[in-house]
Amino acid sequence: DQQVKQNSPSLSVQEGRISILNCDYTNSMFDYFLWYKKYPAEGPTFLISISSIKDKNEDGRFTVFLNKSAKHLSLHIVPSQPGDSAVYFCAASRLAYTDKLIFGTGTRLQVFP
Amino acid sequence: DADVTQTPRNRITKTGKRIMLECSQTKGHDRMYWYRQDPGLGLQLIYYSFDVKDINKGEISDGYSVSRQAQAKFSLSLESAIPNQTALYFCATSDSSAGLDTQYFGPGTRLTVL
Q1: pLDDT of residue B99
Q2: Which candidate from A45, A49, A105 shows the least CB-CB separation from B41?
Q3: pLDDT per residue over B70-96, tens digit each?
């Protein structure tokens, strides 16, 4: 049973526009969420996180929104840049057990000029 | 130099062979992890270690074993490789004293079992 789901395997966005990547989770015990970015031939790199006491966390061009009632989070990238083209993984855990990350299947973002 | 290194980066082996994947880190982190990624799937945790004397099974440990030789080294072994172990393998580290410990990943090892 996939506890963390990224239903869009790919997304294509024009440079300068907003990219919105979505993630849904089923386990109501999850209270800490992360986004990782992965380029080809490299390991995933941490991008941004949010705990369930917040509904929004912002870091430069990247903002993560959390809707606990809907068990849904999204990553907004504004403005999108060609260098943002990568696979983005959503991950979830419990705050008490942040070592045990459950990953989604990833969304491949392509930003075109 | 990379903080988390994995060797080899690519490996092709045959069914039934024993193979070891190695991970080293210079970040000084106490926790280390092994994940595998299959096409179209997320990362799945194989084993993790909180310190040199601590080894724990993850979601998919069957067919794998690990050794934490030192705080900086964590190796993954496939005792008798089978084709469905063909995957991308990632090592990661984290620092338990950092509060919400973020995991830092190595570049991955692409393993093909024929």
Answers
A1: 66
A2: A105
A3: 999 999 999 999 999 999 999 999 988
Q: pLDDT digits over A78-109, tens only?
A: 999 999 999 999 999 887 666 678 999 999 99
pLDDT, position B1: 55
Give φ, ψ of B82 to 5 degrees.
-130, 155
Enumerate the residues of chain B whose CB falls inside 8 A of the CB of residue A42.
Answer: 107-108
* Contact criterion met (CB below 8 Å) for A33 and A64: yes
User: Which of B40, B48, B102 is opposite residue A46, by nearest beta carbon?
Assistant: B102
Q: How far is A76 from chain B (nearest CA, A)?
A: 20
Q: Is B66 on the interface with A (CB under 8 A)?
A: no
Does residue A99 sit at the B interface (CB-CB below 8 Å)? yes
pLDDT digits (tens, 9 = 90+) for A24-45: 999 999 989 999 999 998 999 9
Q: Is B98 helix (H, G, I), strand (E, B) or coil?
A: helix
3-state SS assignment for residue A59: strand
Q: Is A24 on the interface with B (CB under 8 A)?
A: no
Strands, E, within chain B: which ranges?
4-7, 10-13, 19-25, 31-37, 43-51, 54-57, 64-70, 73-78, 87-94, 104-105, 109-113
**The pLDDT of residue A73:** 97
Tokens standing for residue B103: 């995991």
